[in-house]
């Protein structure tokens, strides 16, 4: 097919019914890019002989070198249904190729959000892999309709030498495996939906009758789920080989054999092409099922009969492969070519490369592109059909019903894919792409790029005249001292800026002004002026029509149209350019209607990674943020090799942070720049981009900063702690020394007091007794799983606190009201979800059950914890650690709110401003600026009345300080200042050593409430750390789940590498019908750097690992362990030369953070050592 002109593609955008937005999803190396190349060849973009070799959509150099896709890229293709097909029409297919590697799962999320359908590829030999499940889940979450492509079927013939019957059974099992994954998604959604329905009915009963609803029998409504599965008879399964360029659906062979079998139409044969359906041996015009065949011809013939799919589909394909590749025979090849009635060039017939001849035969007989395009048009929806199903959850949340009726004019336009200019514009930017300036057509002079060589003579003369005018204007402005942005644009450029140009002249004039880097007016500067790398948004327009020069509102995910506090996440932009995405090239457009995928310039600084564009920020919805399967975990610190290049590095990190959907850039309080990535491969890509594109300077990179956690277990302690002056100075624990435990340390009395520490503030006024102990394992796991639920409850209570504080402020005066407003202005303010009132009691009940099942926790104490003793979780109010008040301290605390926010009457006016400690920390786990401002505001409590200004001797006045001390200790533990996990902290006693009345009247700085509050924070923090070290501490390692597929020949080498990296095998199973073993292992992230390369080298490329973050696991080694028993001393000696992995990890982190590390230093290297001295 000749190259399709861009004007033709732009014309097809106007009819949304003829548009198909499709992404290609698969596990790494399952053939996505090869398939994309074959589809590109249909439009003449590349030669069909280069499909699978040129990897056109892999535009990066490192993508070509590694042979894997790292970035999502899109291209628009033209397709016309063949003559005789129904419907015969022209279509625009917007194809989006996505990566398969787990490090780039965020790119898959972007591709799925912009698409309505997906081609899911599965290697028929490797089967359903880890990323196959992940991409299917991504498609499910985004309501993207998939089509299954079973790829690499040539391997079943050429490599594994399966018979057609064996291949059929293998394919059946493979489709069942994929459908089992979809069934799991369906079941999970159905159970969640039923739970919401059940909770809603209980809420309605309580509102109508009061009290709890009567017990009812649980049931699950039946729903038809046949439409979610892949089934060849439905036409949503393709079989083929992308590398050989062929594919088919069962409908293809149904059309061929319908006449031969005497059927009236292929539609009658199509449902019989898959499953146990057989041709009657005596009457070949009849098709029987297995029972009928056994009844007519006996069970023996029925068992040996081949199904229709084997006879009509697989056997012809097998015959071609056997004739050409397996057992080459030129005579048989000639017969096959004649029988298929296809044209093969003489040079291909004589080719010594049998694969070339095979590809020519199969592409002429079963062309891959034709089968895939027909499936896309036939099975996948257009934007008009897809948006009513996809958009309601994006507008109202995941729990909202699909196919819901629109509730406003904007929603009506969204669901209907309204493309007229009067409709509100709503578009979603799935990712921001950084493009070299010369690659964009308005800045390029390359042929075919829309630059100078592609312009007419008149256009070039006009551009030259504009350039002369700009130079004159610049010279005059420089002479007069006028700023560049204040210069008036002459000629056509000024006409465009002032709005007096004709419609035909205005786009060109505007483009000329942008190309010259000028600012069109002071209020509308071009964010890309003077930049070598330009940010282009890759998005999808859902309603309306956007044109060059339009002004739109860019809404970040945190923006809420009805919440004035989120207006900081809203910014107005001007559309500088619109593009048709053509892989490596960008074709300029004047306007883009609804339903299209497009590129847009002008979003720099307004859209960070992703966001919504709308014409009206108040009435148009802000579409939900994307769901992603992976999160960044690997951190490195960056600094320029030349300190003078620091501004370039900062600017480069800003560009990277916008252009990479997963990378995060953190600026520490010390000024250190930290880059957070999803994995080792993602880190390499980001560093390459920084050095070669964004920062353009040499960069020094630190060792990877991997997170750890600190915990304790109920085992004898192996160490003592030198606290120094921790109680008086409040400084961090500086020295950790190992001391053998006393022989009688574990007596009953000592065990009861274990973890109990009493410290006094520096001024001696307050003494705090803290007991630290490990939480039950089930409780820790429960808290870790339900972080998001706990966060929702905390946020809701924060909103309630704000309302109560505002009501109290009205009675105290405007000054206090202003203080409270400043305090609560930075609150996250998330909308309260439905049935949130049920979430707190549900969590409380499940948490109680975890304590009940655990050993060592008395029922009376558990009830006390659940009935107000539990004050707050930590760190950041949602972590797996608890702050608990003893009964004595709880009586002192009085009626302040507990962790479950039970509201009680406050007896004193001052207590209205004193919230629980859980209400004074961050709302989120993010490090956003708004969260930091919230911390500052939460601590700036208003002054209480004079009567309550001085401490009264109870914990009630210092709850904020105690809570802050707990949060600090939970955030940075004593081993290496990493967060704690699984620790319960009980405030046993809080004693205020008050002075006499005469001394109390005398003012003293030490008695100042603020100074005392700070001392209490430090004292509580250090007491918790000291109690922590009385137990046997454990380092918790961040772990990867490692999936490796390998043959038996390299299995031993894989195990050796895993063992050397301190990993462990979780499971091993052999894939049925293949020689592959699927190995699941757990590998510490700290040991994983270089792991993939080592596996590939040791196995000669036969095994490739896939690493996915698994969570944190304790390393069952005390970092302070030393040999103490007689047996240990005999085996290891007094020096314990065996490596202590936990201590090594702890020392690495402490050394990186500049903390004290115990190490032996050779003082006199030249002196002779003798054993006598």
TrEMBL record:
Tr-type G domain boundaries:
17-272
GO biological process: any one? cytosolic ribosome assembly
Primary subcellular site in the record, as a coarse category: cytoplasm
What SUPFAM superfamilies is this protein classified in?
EF-G C-terminal domain-like (SSF54980), P-loop containing nucleoside triphosphate hydrolases (SSF52540), Ribosomal protein S5 domain 2-like (SSF54211), Translation proteins (SSF50447)
Provide one Gene Ontology cellular component: cytosol
**Is Iron-sulfur one of the keywords UniProt gives this record?**
no
**A Pfam family the protein falls into:** GTP_EFTU
> Positions of the region Disordered?
441-464, 912-951
InterPro entries found in the cross-reference section = EFG_II, EFG_III/V, EFG_V-like, P-loop_NTPase, Ribosomal_Su5_D2-typ_SF, Ribsml_uS5_D2-typ_fold_subgr, Small_GTP-bd, T_Tr_GTP-bd_dom
The listed locations are: Cytoplasm
Skewed-composition ranges (Low complexity): 939-951
Does the record carry Ribosomal protein as a key word? no
Extent of Acidic residues compositional bias? 920-938
Q: Which UniProt keywords apply?
A: Cytoplasm, GTP-binding, Hydrolase, Nucleotide-binding, Ribosome biogenesis
Swiss-Prot/TrEMBL catalytic activity: GTP + H2O = GDP + phosphate + H(+)
Fetch the NCBIfam families from UniProt.
small_GTP
Q: What is this protein called?
A: Ribosome assembly protein 1
List the source organism.
Coemansia javaensis
